[in-house]
Amino acid sequence: MPRTIVVGNWKMHKTAAQTRAFFDAFLPLVAAVAPEVEIVVAPPFTALSAAHDALAANRRVALGAQNVHWKSHGAFTGEISVPMLAEFGVRYTIVGHSERRAHFGETDHTVNLKVKALLAHDITPIVAVGETHEEHEAGHAQRRVVTQTRAALEDLDRGEVARVVLAYEPIWAIGTGANCEAFQADRVMAAMRECVDGLQDVPILYGGSVKADNAGAYVAQPNIDGGLVGGASLEPQPFAALIEAAARA
Ligand code: PGA
After folding, report:
1. For residue 124, what is the DSSP state?
2. For FRET with 126, which of 14, 44, 96, 207 sits at 20 to 30 Å CA-CA?
C-alpha cells in the first residue's frame, strides 16, 4: 500500500468531454508529485472510458469508481458490476459513502457484500464511514464508525482486511466547509484502526471539506493517511495544490 492516498470523488459531476479536458490540464500539474503519494480519481461511470483513455499512457493517476453492485451479472436494472469496472482498469471503488447510505438505500450489509465482491476481483474497496451531526453532538462518533467499520468487514479474514482502505467522513463536514479538526478526526480514526484485527497498517483517509490549505494538517496526524476529496477535486489547479500539500506533510 502507498504511504499517502488522495482520492478525488467527483460525485455526479463531469461529462466524458469534461473529463478529457480535466486530465489534459491535471496530468502535467501532478507529474512531479512524489511517487509515495497515490493519486486516485473516481469519475461517474459514464466518464470511466474517457478517463481510462486519458490515463492509458500515464501511470501517475489510478482510476476509481464511486459505487458497484456485488453480483457479477444479472437482472439488476441500472447497476454496474465489478468485472465491468475491471474492464476499464478501475483499481479502487468507494463503497458506503454517506450520500449512498442516505439517498440510495446503502446499508452496512450491502457495503459488506460489495467489499467482498471487490476483493475477489483485486479492486481495493474504499470503505466510507461517518457519524451524523446529532451523533457527533451526542459524543457517539467513535461508537458509530466502529460499528460501521466492523459491519463492513464482517467475515473477512485478516489478509482480506489488510487489503482495504478506510475513509472517515463525518457527515456534518461533507461539502459544508465545517471540516472536523485534524486532532479530533485522528482520535476517531485511531479507534477505527483498533476495532478489527488486521487494520493496523491499512490506510485510513479523512474526508469532509478537505482543501489545499488544510490537507497538510490532516496528513500530518499519526492515523491519517490521506484524503477523500469531493468539491476540491473538481478543478485541476486546486486539486493539484491539495495533493502537493499532502505530499509535503
Ligand atoms: P467534500 O466531499 O470534500 O466536498 O466535503 C467529500 C466526500 O463526500 O467524499
Report:
1. E
2. 14
